[in-house]
Amino acid sequence: VEPYNRDKDAPVFWVNSQKDWFIHLKDLILNPNKRIDYGEKLHEWAKENYSIFDINRTRKAAFENLIKA
Asked: Domain for residue 23, yes or no?
């Protein structure tokens, strides 16, 4: 589903059906170490791919270029 399918490399469980959702959810409920591991991986991935500092640096540069124009 847009826009989430743009992040194919995200360490998440992709599902195609409700059954897939329940399979992954049950697996995470029964495996606390897996929950922690995936949570940490997703945290690192999100920091690298969606850093507000990097996004704001890009925005600042764009505005500075507009002001110069």
From this structure: no
CA distance 60 to 40: 30
pTM of the full structure: 0.69
Q: Please give the C-alpha separations between residue 63 and each of 29, 38, 54, in angstroms, as whole numbers.
A: 46, 37, 14
Stretch 25-39: mean pLDDT: 97
Task: Compute CA 67 distance to the chain's CA centroid, rounded to the nearest angstrom.
Answer: 33
Q: Tokens 């059954």, residue?
A: 19
Is residue 24 within 8 A of residue 58, CB to CB? The reply is no
* Side-chain-facing half-sphere of 49: CA atoms under 13 Å: 13
Domain residues for the domain of 58 are 32-69
